[in-house]
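INFO  loader      accepted 1 record
INFO  loader      residues=367
INFO  predictor   begin
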Amino acid sequence: MSNSKLTRLLSPTTLGPLRLANSVVMSPMTRCRAQNALLAPTALHAAYYRQRSSAGLIITEGTQVSPRGQGYVGTPGIYSSEQEAGWREVVKAVHDAGGKIVAQLWHVGRVSHSDFMPEGKLPVAPSAIAFKGSVHTSTGKHNPPIPEALTAEGIAEVVAEFKHAAEVAKRAGFDGVEVHGANGYLIDQFLRTGANKRTDEFGGTVENRIRFPLLVMDAILSVWDADRVGVRISPTGTFNDMTDDDPLETFTAFAQGCADRKIGFIDLVGQLFDQPQPDERQAAIEAAIRNVFKGHIIANGSYTAITAEEKLAGPYADSVAFGRPFIGNPDLVERFAADAPLAESNMATWYGADGVGYTDYPTIASS
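INFO  predictor   done
INFO  writer      dumping tokens
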């Protein structure tokens, strides 16, 4: 590839056993296109991901590990045979185009509503604390209910659900899996003091708060080789009403646990779309995580090609993730290489049920 300004970003890299064509990662993005009774990926998903397969690595949208892990309309699951078959076609499409793809395993926890739950039950969480926000279901916009605090038995069931989802992902042919531990969803809820008020072995001290997330990692590591497993974290993120008393302590301890298990990568989210300015604590947290974790770090958070190149020049990132630019630019890597302008995506079609605003964006070669 050309563009001498982006020598690091456009150069091949490795992530465990994976040889990546470049250091551009397609970030996981909810697109709500699995609006079928089975919540299974379709040929539309296969086309969407295939179009973007020039990324060094694709991380899929969040895929709920069980029916009670869902919190949005039309998000695909990764627990049934029909979903497995759909994901197998997605993986094949990406591999046939020369790409690499990992599945993001997701449980939303309290960021849900009884409309999504089997038998209309309550969502689950570490503690019976509703988040400040709203939930959109097929019946409209709702205030979130107070969730049910998971019992020890319930925690074991969720761990088993993550393990089963990891098995489904492996049978579907994915190159690896990423655990969604960021953005205010279930694992993040256990990690952070604002959502976790438990007084048992899963709450209170940092050692207790990282216990459930590490049980999930261990369950997945019983299915996958460690160097094909990663986790997404957002230490300073506030999305979905998240706070923590000491994110430096919390996430350094969690990163150390991941390092002890020799997992392949950490997807480290910095500045998110709901945060107009970077958190001043982020730099210290990045340094602390790099100090304990020597695997592959994906920097994630509102990067441009130039700022990504600058990030890769430092010690805190091995690749850089891009989210929204991939929506309107299926050939984002080629545009970076050609120093071509990026197309704007239509926010009104980010979420939907068909290919409009999903698979119909042109490439520079076709426009």
